[in-house]
Every structure is written in structure tokens, then in C-alpha cells.
Amino acid sequence: MYSITNRSVKIFGTNIFALRRYTDNANVATLKGGENILHLSLSKKFPQAKEIKIKDISGGCGAIFEVFISSTEFKGMSIVKQHQLINEVLKNEIKSMHGIRIHTEIPVENKE
């Protein structure tokens, strides 16, 4: 099962519609080896994360991953800083990858 997120992204003044798919990893034990390793590393660094999703987008060979993290720990950081932080956490794993896509967000706090 997938959860789907749609966003309109502006690049150099042009609106681009992006459709992103991530694994539903409510049960981390169902993740494959590479996905599980990334999830564990990110869970340790971002213990307050509302959501961490990892997807092998290389067709199963573990060469390219898509990472999504929703955490209040990103509050006050630019997107570049958020992505740099993730790159630092995964620097050893990234060495053996062909590519990585990183998506981050700060969850909306409920005002009840």
C-alpha cells in the first residue's frame, strides 16, 4: 500500500506538479535491508519524527532511495539545512548509492 502526496513545486519561476509515492512503513520490519538500515539511522537522529518513509526507487537493487521525513525538529531550518542534516546522517550509506531523493516537512501542529 502507498500513501500519496501531491505538491506544486516552483523551480526557476515555473510551477511543476510532483506526484510522490512512498512505502507505507507503519511496520518497519516489512522494509527491505537497505530501506531498514536508512530508517534505523534516521530514527536515531530524529526521535521526534512524526513520519519517516523510505522507498527503494531503483527497481529493487538498492542503488537509489527516496526519503521522506516529517519532523518538528526541522522548525527554523531552511530546506537546504534540513537536507544537509539528512545527508550528514546518511553519509556512509550514501557512498554506496547511485542517488537519493530527499523530501522533508514540518508537521502542522494541532491547535486544540
TrEMBL record:
The gene is BOLA3. PANTHER family: BOLA-LIKE PROTEIN 3. It comes from the Eukaryota. Belongs to the BolA/IbaG family. GO terms for cellular component: mitochondrial matrix. Transmembrane segments: none annotated. It holds the Pfam family BolA. This is BolA-like protein 3. It comes from Sipha flava. Coiled coil: none annotated.
